[in-house]
Amino acid sequence: MTAAVLTVSDSSARGERSDLSGPAVADALRKAGFKVVAMEIISDDQLPIQKASPRHAEKARLVVTTGGTGIAKRDVTPEAAGRFATACSKE
Known about the structure:
- The protein has 91 residues and is an alpha/beta fold.
- It contains 4 helices and 3 strands; from the N terminus they run βααβαβα.
- The protein has a 3-stranded parallel β-sheet, sandwiched between helices.
- Helix 3 crosses helix 4 (77-90).
């Protein structure tokens, strides 16, 4: 089974902070028997999330997001990922 890991982090996308969660998720997926075929770091903005999710879904059976789940209004990952999941479930 294939998987992609999408890290949503403003600071990592700007190169200000190393992405620790993406590689950790990828390692856990590999240990569970997945082949990780893609990893990407994007900013916590609706458009990049909405564009990256289907792009990775073309490559992988499972797309896992990490990060972007703070409580500030700026954190939009749950909403953006939810729109993608809803669109997939209607197909």
